[in-house]
Write a structure and sequence with these properties.
This protein is an alpha/beta fold and about 325 residues long. The protein has one domain: Ribokinase (UDP-N-acetylmuramoyl-L-alanine:D-glutamate ligase), CATH 3.40.1190.20. About 35% of the residues lie in helices and about 25% in strands. The chain has ten helices and 13 strands. A nine-stranded mixed sheet has the order 5-4-1-8-9-10-11-12-13, sandwiched between helices. Strand 11 and strand 12 form a beta hairpin. Helix 1 packs across helix 8 and helix 8 runs antiparallel to helix 9. The longest helix has 17 residues. It is globular, with a radius of gyration of 18 Å. It starts with a strand and ends in a 9-residue tail after the last helix. The relative contact order is 0.14.
């Protein structure tokens, strides 16, 4: 498969409670890494594409861990090592079987000091797709300028732009996020959002109305992630729908990023919209079957095994 994806944003060390229950009474923890942009990059790489990630990391063990994991997943990391700031940290717990609680310790992190000077212009100019999210602009003026500069470069050189709105209420208010996300939508070729995220940018409504309104701002592809109801896409004015797959759910965090990775991998491979959506939904389902933000992301071989009656492969 051909196709080169470039993305930029913050990836953090992740400490996750292994057992269900309050973090205060949970002594078993698992160390990993987490970040929406690197989740997508890993997902694309596992599906056969090339992926590059741009960011800043602290000069610490967490930063080293992130680089090692990305190398193992064949994701190229173009990072600046910040000796004065730490790598960000994310804590995840499951207070009960029905809820996952995530806390971020990213104030003053290395990635929060990103600026347009950290963006590798030549890499973006030569890529097939630049993927950015609404998380990075929420980290501060510097990261916001980095995203805008990356999009400027992509538009100037014909690199397609993908935007996942990915709103985080813990980072900024809906009032602050709306205008920034709208500007990104206006400059994107493909936009991903959940219905509530889409309503930050356009008037609320049914998902068909939301997709039409978002498409009216500029992008020729609008893909709405509907969770248990599957997905709805409006591509070049044509609607496409696909139901969700039923799988045993272990951890839903990262499923949206897996969905995006599946769609982008097929888009770069010039597959038709129906196939893009099918791979996206399948990848999202796979991500729900394993602990971790990216560990359950599928390979091409994995995609072929979903639904197989034989649970043991020999």
């Amino acid at each position: 498969m051909s196709g080169h994806l470039v993305t930029a944003g913050e990836t953090m060390a992740l400490i996750a409670a292994v057992q269900v229950g309050s973090l205060a009474s949970n002594r078993d923890m698992r160390l990993s890494v987490a970040g929406a942009e690197t989740n997508v990059a890993i997902g694309v790489a596992r599906l056969g594409g090339r992926a590059t990630w741009i960011s800043r990391l602290g000069n610490d063990g967490f930063g080293e861990l992130i680089q090692r994991e990305l190398r193992a997943e064949r994701v190229e990391a173009l990072v600046q090592i910040d000796t004065g700031r730490p790598t960000g940290l994310m804590i995840k717990e499951r207070p009960n079987a029905m809820r996952t609680h995530v806390r971020y310790y990213r104030s003053g992190s290395a990635a929060s000091a990103m600026t347009a000077f950290d963006v590798d212009s030549e890499t973006i100019a030569a890529a097939d797709v630049l993927h950015v999210t609404g998380i990075t602009p929420a980290l501060g003026p510097g990261p916001a300028s980095a995203v805008q500069h990356a999009v400027d470069i992509a538009r100037q050189h014909g690199t397609r732009v993908s935007v996942d709105l990915n709103y985080r209420s813990s980072l900024w208010s809906r009032e602050d996020a709306g205008p920034v996300l709208k500007h990104l939508v206006e400059r994107a070729d493909a936009v991903f959002a959940g219905p509530e995220e889409a309503a930050l940018v356009v008037p609320d409504g049914h998902h068909e109305e939301l997709a039409r309104s978002l498409s009216g701002l500029g992008p020729d592809q609008v893909i709405l992630k509907l969770g248990g109801d599957g997905a709805y896409a409006l591509v070049d004015g044509q609607p496409h729908t696909l139901a969700a797959l039923s799988v045993p759910v272990v951890d839903t965090v990262g499923a949206g990023d897996a969905f995006v990775a599946g769609y982008l991998a097929e888009w770069m491979a010039a597959e038709p919209p129906a196939q893009r959506l099918r791979t996206a939904v399948t990848a999202g389902a796979f991500a729900c079957t394993a602990l971790g933000d990216w560990e359950g992301l599928p390979t091409r071989e994995d995609l072929r095994t979903l639904g197989s009656p034989d649970s043991v492969q020999r």
